[in-house]
Amino acid sequence: MSQVSYQLAEDVLFQKVAEETVILEPETGEYYTLNAIATFMVEQLQQGYAKSKVIDLVLEKYQVSKAEVSQDIEELLAQMLKQGLLVSVDSKVDSNHG
Prior knowledge:
Distance between the termini: 17 Å
Number of strands: 5
Number of helices: 3
Number of domains: 1
Strand order of the largest sheet: 2-3-4
CATH topology: Outer Surface Protein A, domain 3
Largest sheet: 3 strands, antiparallel
Shape: globular
Oligomer: single chain
Order of helices and strands: EEEEHHHE
C-alpha cells in the first residue's frame, strides 16, 4: 500500500526564526513565513509522515479541532505545492513509522 507524502522542493530554504519559519524560494527570491503549527506540519512531512499522520500529531501537540487542522493542512499543502515549495512523493506506508 502506498500513500502520497510531501517533501520540500530541492532548492527551497527552510529556516526557523523564533516562533516562525521563513521559507525562501531561491528562483523567485520570494519569502514565505509559517506560524508554529504550520512549521510543525512541514517538519512532520519532512520526516516522511503522510498527511493523515501529521493531522494526528498536530492534534496531540496543540489544542485545536480536527476540522481546523484538516482545513489548515489542505490549505498549506495547496499553497506550498502551487508555489513550488513542496513536491509530492509516493511513499510506502510503514506501520512501524510512528
